[in-house]
Every structure is written in structure tokens, then in C-alpha cells.
Amino acid sequence: MFFLSIIDTVTVTFSLFIVFLITLSAINKSIKARRAYVNLLLRVFEYGRVSEGKLNSNTNSRSRNKSHHITEDPNKSEKLVAVNGNTLINRDNVLLPTLTENTLDKEKFTATIKDEKISFNFEECLDYIKAGVEAIIEDEVTSRFEAEQLRSWNLLARTNCRYEFINWKITLIWVIGFTVRYSILMPLRVFVCFVGVIWLTICTAVVGYMPEGESKRQLVNDILKHCFSVLSSAISAVINYHNEENRPNTGICVANHTSPIDALVLMCDTTYSLIGQRHGGFLGILQRALARASPHIWFERAEAKDRHAVAERLKQHVSNPNNPPILIFPEGTCINNTSVMQFKKGSFEVGGVIYPVAIKYDPRFGDAFWNSSRYSMLQYLYMMMTSWAIVCDVWYLPPMYRQKEESAIDFANRVKGVIAKQGGLVDLVWDGQLKRMKPKKEWKEMQQVEFIKRLKAD
């Protein structure tokens, strides 16, 4: 009987909590409990950082730099750049591909290489040798698909330094945090996520039967914001929106891509139409639920490779002013919250207005990056729900238009540069798909031509 009474008490408590959560989301109110929780975590992290600093002060500077991956070697061509409060490490690159609208074909490259008369000058290739050695040690692409390095321990990330045993106070805090995350937060978050998905499915099914019109569009916008607000509670999301006067209401919205929850983060503020490949499992449930309430573009795997079909569907969607703005992640893959990589030109060929959005996560509370080649969606959700929280900033940037005589690639690079600058991210030219495939021959041949030009005598 005592055991049953405990179960009843827990069930009632959880039910009341969910009702309270849904009610707050419905009336768009917050008791700011998550922000107070995040502020408390910051104080704990600061205490841990100070304790860690005392430990490190007892070791020599060389071992300290090794354990924290600090790249302060004056012999390296790196420089620190402060952007929007974020410190970036930029390396002077000499092997960068130059992308043009009309990529040169192989025969032209071969002819160029053969026709060049080289007068060898050894010192001209020293910077290439140096860049090659640096790329072997740590290339710019591979490092973008690993977890972002933290400046100090957050009582969460796995390390080989065993910071949890610095002193008995840190050990106690770590044990309490571990217990809270796995015995309280994770079960509660799983329950909220389960209820949130069911609630989203029910709400979208109801509004799906309403006749099309302005009243339905407004109701869908309110309901989706409400449902995604509930789902954001499953990861204790704290989202700061900036420059809301630039919030998109039509056209195409493009953003840098770190995680599948990027869409959730943006949908908590306004409604978007989504484009992507059809999925099964958990993502498939969400896709079918969203499709009942608002227009989205879902492709089968084979159809998604047809660029012309994708472009035509995009044009049809954008041409209808009643459709919500369509949300696109032009990188095509998740990057680890430190950089912005090559934007695919497809969404910039459609025409019309482009609304750039920059998203930057705070890695101290949890790593939002999804390494899809290493973790399944289920494993990723487990990591999110056992993190302290997901804290991020979203910047709505002024709308941008393609200029006359500007190619789609140049326009994409211009938009990418604006997003990188605002988010404090490194602007890289490399294709994010390099984590799955080998570099294109055209890129290698372009570097050969550039190398020949540098070897020529003045």
C-alpha cells in the first residue's frame, strides 16, 4: 500500500506539473525559473573554474597548455580575434579554394598546368609546406565535427583530468549534480518530451480540419509557438532573441546549422515552413504532425537529389504570400557551433528576399552539436536531456537581396559572412560534406594552378 501511495503521489505531481507547464505556454508567460537555474549554474561553474585554476597553477605551463588545448605558440600563424564577446582563433590560410559560378573544367586545368613555364624559387613554397604541416596536425574541416573545446570544466564534459576530485567540495557538487541530472531532470524531461509530442500531434490534427484563411494561419502560428514552447522545456532551453524587428514573415530564412533543435529554437518564436528529407521514427512523427497544420516541403531520398525539382517547389512556396517563411540550413549538415561552412547556392537562386539568422549556443551548459556520424538520434536526445540546459542566442539580421550581376555563389558567401560575423563564428569556405566524402578533383586542381603561379619568378 505504501508503495502504491508513492506511485500515486508521483503521478499526481507529474500531472500537475505538465498542466502548469502547458498553461504557462498557452498564455505566453514565464516564471523565469529556467533563467534563475542558469544563473545558479554560472556561479557553480565559476567556483569550479577557480578551483581548477588553483590546481593548474601547481603544474608547469607546458602541461597546462596541453591539457586545455591552448594554441598560443607564437611560431604559429594564428591570431586572436574578439567578435561579439567570443574569442576566435583564426589561422592564416594559403590553401583556400576560389569558388566561381562557372567552375573550370579538367581539360582547362590540365592545359594551364602543362603550359606554365616554371622558374623554381624555393622560398615561395615555404608557406605551403608550413600550411601542409599545420593541416596534418589539425585541419580546418575535421575539427569542426568534434565537440567544441571548453575554456574550463563545466562539471559535465568527460575529461582525462578527473577534475571532480580536485577537492572534497568539488566532488560533493559533482555528485549532487550527477544525481540531479539523472534521477530528477532526465525522467522529468523525457516525460515532458513525450507529452509535448502527443500534445503537438493533437493540436495540429485539430487545426488541420479548419478551412484555409487568415484566422487559421494566425491560430496555427499561436498553437505551434505554444507546442514548441512546451517541447523546449524538455531540454531546459533558455533562448535570447535579438533584433526582433527583423523577424521574417515571408520569403526564405537561412541560418547556420548546429543541431536538429535549431528548428525548435526558431519555432518557439514564430512559425516557419520546413524543407527536408522524409524521416521515420521520432522525426517522422513530428514531420507528419506539422504537415497537417501548415505547408512544408518533404522529399523522398531520391527526389531530394533532383535540384531542379527542389528549386521549383521552393519557388512555388515563396510565390504565395500567405505561406510562412521557409526555413533552410544551407550548410546541409551540422557544424560544431564554432564555424559557418559553405552555403549551398540552391536557396539563393530562387530569387526574392533572404532573411539571415545567426544562432550561437553557450557550450558551458551542454553541447548542442549533433555528430550524426557518431551518435544516433536517440543517443543525441539522451545527451540533450542529461545536459544542464540548452542556452543560446538568436540574432535576426536585416533582409538581404541579390545584387545585379551577383552570382548565386557570391550572394551565398555574402550572407554567410554576415551570419558568421554576428554569431562570432569562423567563416570557412570548405564544404561541410567533406566529413562524408573526398574533396572534389576541381578543388585539388585549382590548388595546383595557384601553386604554379606562386612558384613563377617575378
Task: Write up this protein.
- The chain starts with a helix and ends with a helix.
- The strands form three sheets. Strands 3-10-9-4-7-5-6 form a seven-stranded mixed sheet, with helices on both faces. A two-stranded antiparallel sheet has the order 1-2.
- Strand 1 and strand 2 form a beta hairpin.
- The protein contains 14 helices and eleven strands.
- It is flat and about 80 Å long.
- It is of the alpha/beta class.
- The protein has a domain at 168-442.
- GO terms for molecular function: glycerol-3-phosphate O-acyltransferase activity.
- Belongs to the 1-acyl-sn-glycerol-3-phosphate acyltransferase family.
Summarize the structure.
The protein is of the alpha/beta class.
Question: Which short descriptors sum up this protein?
Answer:
alpha/beta, 458 residues, two-stranded antiparallel sheet, 47% helix
